[in-house]
Specification:
The structure holds two protein chains of two kinds. By secondary structure, chain A is α/β, with parallel strands linked by helices. Chain A has 13 helices and 14 strands. In chain A, helix 8 runs parallel beside helix 13. The chains are: A alpha/beta, B mainly alpha.
Chain lengths: 340, 57
């Protein structure tokens, strides 16, 4: 094989990054890792968080403040000068803007001003989020903003065909699917641990029912709570319920369902252990653009019960032996569990 | 509780479905998209030898 050594410089700009845990940080960290693995140079512009003051090599961290309506989200002030001073000596051949926030705007502006090709990502279903937060009337404005934001991009990456088709129909950018895939070496059934199972369920005779994700209204936490309540009433001690994640709905969920074990956000290693040590993963969100969480669960050997919507439709093959897409999760869930 | 035999069948089926969506081909697709976006026309410009470098090299 010809050894063509071409090292390229790529700037990644994101409004959320490690050590925060969410789908976007996972994907951006993954892109940086892949690029470095293939010998390319990467510069990352991201928020600085109170829990992590230090910058890693190749990073510009810009101080962030909590976003008042949703304090877990921290946004940086748009500092174009700082971004330009950091990126100019790096001379990027490509700028990839992963988010549509203030830093994303700075990345977009930098690429436009320097005449550098811009790639954007569309990860988050903001128009649907607007509906969930009682601001459905703003949806047309959100689409307008997205059209404007992504217009200069050579490519706008989306995680699936359905999202790409929607962006196209809305006149947004040049959507292209990047499916991301799942790290099947990391997420694998071999990580199943007797220790985790004992801790979560007490032993092998109890099914561990798992939900992974942010506990927020747009993730259909109401649906999860109703489904789990019905299942808990029917299953008694035969099932235990575990959440890996947290968010604004955490307190309400734990108050109303005190028998749920909440683990908070886990690092990737522990998350893989928990997946493999569970039995069923329940994912009710209808706003997922990707559905990577379903693939991680499947790679770990779990049955997956997911909403028949968004990215899950592309992660899960309806009718496959170990996964179900449910249009209405509430009445179906207990029956589905115990036919297993 | 899920019967052990049924649990094993589920794990096998789920794993097989996930393997069809492994990261390796997606990583190459990412690099190819970058190459297209950056205007690199030389084959392998971003994907190089299509083989990752050794860690630390």
């Amino acid at each position: 094989m010809t050894n063509i050594v071409v090292s390229c410089e790529i700037a990644l700009v994101t409004d959320t990054y490690t050590p925060q845990v969410n789908g976007v940080t996972t994907v951006v960290a993954r892109i940086a890792s892949v690029l470095r693995e293939f010998g390319h140079q990467v510069a990352v512009v991201a928020p600085r968080y109170p829990s992590r003051a230090a910058e890693a090599p190749g990073e510009l961290r810009i101080p962030s403040a909590a976003f008042p309506p949703y304090p877990a989200i921290r946004l940086s002030l748009p500092q174009f000068g700082a971004v330009a001073r950091f990126l100019d000596p790096f001379e990027p051949e490509l700028v990839h803007v992963a988010t549509e926030g203030p830093l994303g705007l700075m990345g977009r502006r930098y690429a436009k001003r320097r005449g550098i090709p811009l790639v954007t990502s569309y990860h988050t279903n903001f128009p649907q989020y607007a509906r969930h937060y009682g601001a459905g009337a703003l949806e047309p404005l959100v689409w307008k903003w997205l059209r404007w934001f992504h217009r200069p991009a050579v490519l706008t990456q989306t995680p699936g065909e359905a999202v790409a088709a929607e962006l196209k129909s809305r006149g947004i950018g040049n959507p292209i699917v990047w499916g991301r895939g799942v790290d099947t070496a990391h997420f694998n059934p071999g990580r199943r641990s007797a220790g985790w199972r004992r801790w979560l369920a007490g032993g092998d005779d109890t099914a561990v029912v798992l939900h992974v994700g942010r506990l927020a209204p747009e993730k259909s936490i109401d649906v999860l709570m109703e489904a789990w309540t019905a299942t808990h009433e029917g299953a008694g001690q035969r099932a235990t319920f575990v959440v890996a994640g947290e968010g604004p709905e955490t307190r309400r969920l734990l108050t109303q369902l005190p028998w749920v074990r909440q683990l908070g956000f886990l690092d990737r290693g522990k998350l893989a252990d928990v997946y493999a040590s569970a039995d069923i993963c329940v994912l009710p969100s209808k706003t997922e653009t990707c559905g990577l969480v379903a693939l991680e669960a499947m790679a770990s050997g779990l049955a997956v019960v997911a909403a028949d919507a968004g990215g899950f439709r592309e992660s899960i093959t309806q009718g496959a032996a170990a996964s179900w897409l449910l249009r209405t999760m509430r009445p179906d869930l207990p029956r589905r569990y115990f036919r297993l | 509780m899920i019967a052990p035999q049924r649990r094993a069948e589920i794990a096998t089926a789920a794993r097989a479905a996930a393997l069809a969506r492994d990261v390796a081909p997606e990583n190459l697709a990412l690099l190819q998209q970058y190459a297209a976006a950056a205007g690199h026309t030389a084959a392998g410009a971003f994907t190089r030898t299509a083989q990752p470098v050794e860690a630390g090299v």
